Amino acid sequence: PNNHGFWSEYDYPLRPGNDDSYIVGVFGGSVAQWLAVQAGEYFRRKLAGLPELEGRQVHVVNFAIGGFKQPQQLQVLSYFMAIGQSFDLVVNLDGFNEVVLPVVENFPQGIHFSMPRSYPKVVSSITSIADEAMFDWLDHGLKLREKINHWANMSNLRFSAVYYLASTALHSRYQGLHDEHMRSSPEISGAERNVFFALASAEEGFERYQQKTRMTDLWVQSSLLMRDLAEQNGAMYLHVLQPNQYHSAKTFSARERLIAFKPRHPYSRAVKEMYPVLLKKSSGLTSEGVNFLDATPVFDDVEETLYVDSCCHYNDKGNRI
Q1: pLDDT at residue 213 in the model
Q2: pLDDT score for 248
Q3: What pTM, to 2 d.p., does this model score?
Q4: Cα angle 319, 8, 138; round to 5
Q5: What's the rounded Cα separation, in Å, for the pair 261 and 172?
Q6: Could you say which residues of the chain have pLDDT below 50?
Q7: What is the Cα–Cα distance from 254 to 260, expressed in whole angstroms?
Q8: Residue 208: in which H helix or E strand, if any?
Q9: Pairwise CA distance, residues 116 & 105, whole Å
Q10: 3-state DSSP percent of the chain in helix, strand and coil, to 5
């Protein structure tokens, strides 16, 4: 990670020191992060090959972190612009975290849908009120995520059928353990809630379906504000709805079905219910002049394996596509 905790070869703000640079900022959660990290060089070459960018030095720069959801992308963009980061193109690849994480994590804990993932625990863990259970919970979650990434990579290596089956089984096991771990965080006491205004509770008197409507409205409004910030500072803005296996017409390989689908996964239910809402709400973005791309069909004609877990992530070819 760089000086601001992002996976990047550059410290931020990036100032190339020449007038021919073309800076592309990629914003979002882990899918956007791995797009920038795994396919960043491919993306850079594709852009550099455009006639409009002939002679420009293209930089694809990661401003995404796993678990980020709106309004975090908006906050990241405004923060880095405020400290002097310039952009020529802002790409916001999101949608999944915005509809899944509030439903699976925020609502059950009584936390407002706009609050970041696991935010009560993150905030509490860096204050004097943190306890050992809190640190253990955060540490164990990171270790499980490391194991998931390790076995996802191992399952893509073609040593033997037996090795593939073993690595796939281990990947699936650690993914399940991680999902369960994220749903069983330590209890938040009333005293912890009151230390920071940021630990906002869900709005009293609002039914869950109303909260879901409000969270998709937040997605739209955050994108409009990102567009305004980008364009007012001389950058183009592109908003992309990320593909996901639970909202897809793709023909999945047998291997991919084993990796990418988990029976009764809570993410599956949230995506199936809320992705159609995002697509409906996206018409409001396009009517406001936002460059919006529905990327959910981009894998429809690809039969080979692209997904690497039961959440949302793609292998190298998936990221290039």
Answers
A1: 86
A2: 96
A3: 0.78
A4: 90
A5: 10
A6: 124-129, 191-199, 205-206
A7: 10
A8: helix 208-232
A9: 10
A10: 50, 10, 40
